[in-house]
Amino acid sequence: MVDTHKSIITMKRILVVDDTPGWLQFNTAALEKIFDKDDICVETAVSAKDGYDKVLFNVKTPYDLIITDLQMESDYAPMIAGEWFIRQVKTFPSYLNTKILIVSAMYNIEMTADLLGVDFLSKRMLIGGGELPLKLKLEEMGIIKE
After folding, report:
1. Is 20 inside a domain boundary?
2. Is residue 146 part of a domain?
3. Helix 109-116 to helix 81-89 angle, to the nearest 10 degrees?
4. Domain count of the chain?
5. Over the Cα atoms of the chain, what is R_g?
6. Which residues pair with 102 in a beta bridge?
7. Helices H, strands E: what count in the chain?
């Protein structure tokens, strides 16, 4: 008999937010290579607003990991959309233990991540290294325990 209760407890819930379909697909495929497909549930959002709506809908069952781009829709000036999104996520007490990873091509990604208290990974590293840089970053963040 299969213990489905254990699978539910250990399954990682991940939200990937990016306005570029290719990056949504890349990150989802990379996560599926890194994790056993039975160990993760990946949802995607195509904008900061869409990501916020999904976070709000899941406020009682928060995501374990959120991967987000920074440069998306331009509705949040003077903040960039990804910064606005991260600030919104951090207002929910149920998301205090959710790890957030910025994956962006912005030149000041490290400064923005430090300001927001989250981790970051450059899209340039992913282009050159495939899913390996993402796997290493997730290990460093404690998402993957080997």
Report:
1. yes
2. no
3. 20
4. 1
5. 15
6. 68, 120
7. 7, 5
The DSSP code sequence of 123-146 is: HHHHHHHTTHHHHHHHHHHTSS--
CATH number at residue 24: 3.40.50.2300
Average pLDDT over residues 10-36: 94
Three-state DSSP at 37 gives helix
- Say which amino acid occupies 109: I
Tokens 């987000």 correspond to 68
Tokens of 12: 């990682």
Cα–Cα distance, 105 to 110 (Å, whole number): 11
Mind listing the pLDDT tens digit for each residue in 30-74? 999 999 878 899 999 999 999 999 999 999 999 999 999 999 998
- Tell if the pTM clears 0.85, that is, is over it: yes
Q: Indicate whether 15 belongs to any domain.
A: yes
Residue-wise pLDDT tens digits, 78-117: 889 999 999 999 999 999 999 999 999 998 899 999 999 9
Nearest Cα neighbor of 66 from 43, 39, 94 is: 43
